[in-house]
From TrEMBL:
SUPFAM superfamilies: NAD(P)-binding Rossmann-fold domains. Belongs to the short-chain dehydrogenases/reductases (SDR) family. This is DHRS7 reductase. The keyword Ion transport does not apply. GO terms for molecular function: oxidoreductase activity. It comes from Halcyon senegalensis. The keyword Oxidoreductase applies. Gene3D superfamilies: NAD(P)-binding Rossmann-like Domain.
């Protein structure tokens, strides 16, 4: 059994709402007041989606962008100001394989993750004068978590009725370990997934025509299962 050497002063837990952007500066300042510095920011807040675009209200898309994208870059802005002053730090953002590819039933979620990929890949190019500030995008595939229970659906008031079996997904501990390895080594981007999802990432990157063909075939079945409640 490992015994932690952390004391109470080494731990600070703050409630944070990514959609309440006016609170992000105060939260950042609270952390700085307690620890004196911020070495690593891990952006890991967000919600997924399970609904067809034709059935989905536009305010769902607004909420997804507000939370997954704007909330993330708002918090990043306040923490980055401190890191620029120190000329040191790591900003790690949990994107998704959906930030690399497209998939049915997740148009808004994919859009928000593509936005994060574009933003942080661009931000990295603005920080060339700060070589000790690293930007890492983590792109997990399916991972065992509660994200499915909390997905957006066709409207903001509706929750998903059937979250399905998660046994085929990557264990949470393995995803965390690979994320930490990526952070320590300052990787710019890490795809953390089992096959066949990892293979589809490679197809999407290097043979997109084949990826589109495959996704259309897979997507048709996925939509049928969704409509059948599977």
């Amino acid at each position: 059994v490992e015994i932690s050497s952390l004391s109470e002063k080494d731990i600070l837990v703050l409630r944070l709402d990514l959609t309440d952007r006016s609170s992000h500066e105060a939260a950042t300042n609270s952390v700085l007041k307690h620890f004196g510095k911020i070495d690593v920011l891990v952006n890991n807040g967000g919600r997924s989606q399970r609904s067809l675009f034709v059935d989905t209200n536009l305010d769902v898309y607004s909420a997804i962008i507000e939370l997954n994208y704007l909330g993330t870059i708002s918090l990043t802005k306040h923490v980055l100001n401190h890191m620029v002053q120190r000329k040191k730090g790591k900003i790690v953002t949990v994107s998704s394989v959906m930030g690399i590819m497209g998939a049915p039933l997740a148009t808004g979620y994919c859009a928000s993750k593509h936005a994060l990929q574009g933003f942080f890949n661009s931000l990295r190019t603005e920080l060339t004068d700060y070589p000790e500030i690293s930007i890492t995008n983590i792109c997990p595939g399916p991972v065992q978590s509660q994200i499915i229970q909390n997905v957006f659906t066709e409207n903001l008031a509706k929750s998903l009725e059937n979250s399905g079996d998660q046994s085929h997904k990557m264990p949470t501990a393995r995803c965390v370990r690979l994320t930490l390895v990526s952070m320590v080594n300052d990787l710019k981007e890490a795809w953390i997934s089992d096959h066949p999802y990892l293979a589809v990432c490679y197809l999407w990157q290097y043979a997109p025509t084949w990826a589109w063909w495959l996704m259309n075939r897979m997507g048709k079945r996925r939509i049928q299962n969704f409509k059948s409640g599977v």
